[in-house]
Amino acid sequence: MIKTTIAEVYKYVDQEVKIGAWIANKRSSGKIAFLQLRDGSGFIQGVVVKADVSEEMFKAAKSVTQESSVYITGKVQKDERSPLGYELLVTNVEVIHESVDYPITPKEHGTEFLMDNRHLWLRSRRQHAVMKVRNEIIRATYAFFNENGFSKVDPPILTGSAPEGTSELFATKYFDEDAYLSQSGQLYMEAAAMALGKVFSFGPTFRAEKSKTRRHLIEFWMIEPEMAFYEFEDNLKVQEEYVSYIVQSVLENCSLELKTLGRDTSKLEQIKAPFPRINYDDAIKFLQEKGFDDIEWGDDFGAPHETAIAESYEKPVFITHYPTSLKPFYMQPDPNREDVVLCADLIAPEGYGEIIGGSERIHDFELLKQRIKEHDLDEDAYKWYLELRQYGSVPHSGFGLGLERTVAWVTGVEHVRETIPFPRLLNRLYP
Ligand code: 4AD
Ligand code: MG
């Protein structure tokens, strides 16, 4: 007997196979039972025809409960109507473990209930599809950076510094010292870029943000590339090529998942480099003309502002050259203008907001030292970071892409809580 998975049944058309699976759903009549089977690799319909199996077997198939685990045996058949293209003509159902009173029934449930049952909710077809797309974006990330000469470097999670401002830190104890959970690996990635040239990281980051929006997580995963000798323009080029690459990879390798999610793929098909740009000054003018009277030069953008700007474009848009006062201490000033920095945020289409923050970094020792002072940061904690500007300092740039916001945009799901297996939110640490 061939033991296989749902994803691989296409190899065994008209052959009998055995699959370990769960019963996602079931419906039956007097003569036929339809079992919706899932095994992690995918979903397939199993058809049990009363006339083809023993009476005992038909009874067992009719009474098997939702989420019971089974070994199912059946003949693989082509089926044009199913999303997978195949179904299973079941010959045997062997119950491994009977599931009793599974809490997530096929009826509608409220979000809090589903979040309390996140450990089970992950099994649903929709959540499965989102996790598969997340996985594809991670796979494509490694592929893109490896193909382009980057090395993966892992910055620490426990740190003594605060690259993105001191107000949103998770403080902890490191024996007798104060420590923080990493908000960003950037500063360490800058050190790594001076050793390896082009580097990227992928890991969890933490922000004790009191924001309760559909774009904010307390713990989120970030991809942070950093490149020696890359200036502002070079940085934007990597970003638009990388984002295009991941979107096109998802289109190519996750068509079934995007269909499950009801995603409008025509919007994604347009996501190809280059991306449009607007500088901060023009973005402010644009918003004022649109009727946002409350915003003026020097203000940061909120979600409605970002959405209004993004709506003018079909691709993600870079907002560049923000006022120095709005951005972290490490950003390189515009050589033509002291009041703005060489930075860009990449705003996703369709209201998904900022998915990337990046910039050229200050490479002058004196200027960086001055900025650390101005920002009231502890100079001792940044001694090593300053030293990167003492031994062969070079222009360099990098950025951070938030994985969950990117997954939300690509899948079209409303809220980032569905784009990470176990979301950490303002009021949620369970499960
Ligand atoms: O713009 P941010 O704060 O930039 C940095 O941390 C830089 N040090 C990155 C770098 O240059 N290496 O964060 C980068 C991205 C944002 O654009 C957003 O996609 C995501 O991280 N992000 C969040 N995602 C979910 N929940 C949150 N609370 C997030 N905060 C930032
Ligand atoms: Mg940002």
Automatic annotation (TrEMBL):
This is Asparagine--tRNA ligase. Residues 131-431 form the Aminoacyl-transfer RNA synthetases class-II family profile domain. InterPro entries: Aa-tRNA-synt_II (IPR004364), aa-tRNA-synth_II (IPR006195), aa-tRNA-synth_II/BPL/LPL (IPR045864), Asn-tRNA-ligase (IPR004522), Asp/Asn-tRNA-synth_IIb (IPR002312), NA-bd_OB-fold (IPR012340), NA-bd_OB_tRNA (IPR004365). It catalyses: tRNA(Asn) + L-asparagine + ATP = L-asparaginyl-tRNA(Asn) + AMP + diphosphate + H(+). Gene3D superfamilies: Bira Bifunctional Protein, Domain 2 (3.30.930.10), Nucleic acid-binding proteins (2.40.50.140). SUPFAM superfamilies: Class II aaRS and biotin synthetases, Nucleic acid-binding proteins. Its EC number is 6.1.1.22. Keywords: Aminoacyl-tRNA synthetase, ATP-binding, Cytoplasm, Ligase, Nucleotide-binding, Protein biosynthesis. It is found in: Cytoplasm. It holds the Pfam family tRNA-synt_2. The gene is asnS. Belongs to the class-II aminoacyl-tRNA synthetase family. Homodimer. It comes from Cytobacillus purgationiresistens. GO terms for molecular function: asparagine-tRNA ligase activity.
